[in-house]
Amino acid sequence: MGHLTGVAGAGVMGGGIALAAALAGSPVLVWSRRETTLRSCIDKCKKDLGRAVKKGWIDEVSADEAVARMQPVADVRELAAADLVIESVAEDLSVKTDVLTELDRVCDENTILSTNTSSISIDVLAGATRRPQNFLGTHFIYPAPIRPLVEVLTGTKTSEETVSRVRTRFEGWGKRCLVVEDGVSGPVVNRLFGVLAAEAMRLHESGAASADDIDAICELGFGHATGPLKSLDAVGLDVALASLENAYERTGQAVFEPPEILARMVSEGLLGRKSRKGFYEYPSTRERRAD
Ligand SMILES: NC(=O)c1ccc[n+]([C@@H]2O[C@H](COP(=O)([O-])OP(=O)(O)OC[C@H]3O[C@@H](n4cnc5c(N)ncnc54)[C@H](O)[C@@H]3O)[C@@H](O)[C@H]2O)c1
Any idea which architecture 5-185 has in CATH? Predict the structure, then answer.
């Protein structure tokens, strides 16, 4: 019998992780507590694939086959058919704890449970389950179908067999796995990006440089594919705030202290691409057509 992966949470990352699996030929179940989220997740994946077909990155048959490999499920119990379930719900300890407790209850004891957390301790989240040896962090990078890297975060009780099973699965999806002890640093990707992003926001807030100029410095000056403020808009400012808050709490280092502008924008509902406004504005398709 082939392997089946489950994804709990159908937001920006849950949908992206499911699409990464499907594009690599792996069947995947996607669950969300709301049917509307589930539907818009599948619609978004279809739209992204349509764009990839237009750009010639993938042919139409492969795109259709990828969609067919993604099975939306409305009942969390259906995830029990998977042997690896990746939790990717909101970056909030109590939300994650509730979902992981439920997954632990419905899934077989040999099933590996993982979390896509950006910043919450793996040992703390493992505590929501009765399988710390079969639990770890699998930190994907946005956009998950494209970025060929997954940070695998081990907790103090994660077994080597669990790491090896997960590594084999993701390498089959064309990803390179970097294994990091969560207790030492948390996700290294976020520690590095957090410093750059926080400083970019502070510079922008102080009026030192415009959002465009800061991004241009990183893109043209450092050769980054995307500047930090554009990346923050894509990641979601609420997710970025939670991630910085947790890194600050965990390390006590002032570089991670969330800039005031970030907290203010989140409280005003400016979340980046998903709310159509962040450091930049993103008109809807209809607005773009009317231009
Ligand atoms: N956005 C990024 O670039 C990025 C990168 C790596 C990891 N992450 C992590 O991935 C996870 C998901 O982030 P995202 O960007 O996809 O966020 P998102 O806001 O796009 O999606 C969050 C999902 O959680 C679900 N959810 C919210 N409350 C819930 C509840 N009480 N019960 C069940 N489901 C609930 C929502 O319906 C949604 O499907 C977070 O832990 C985040 O830190 C995000």
Answer: 3-Layer(aba) Sandwich (3.40)
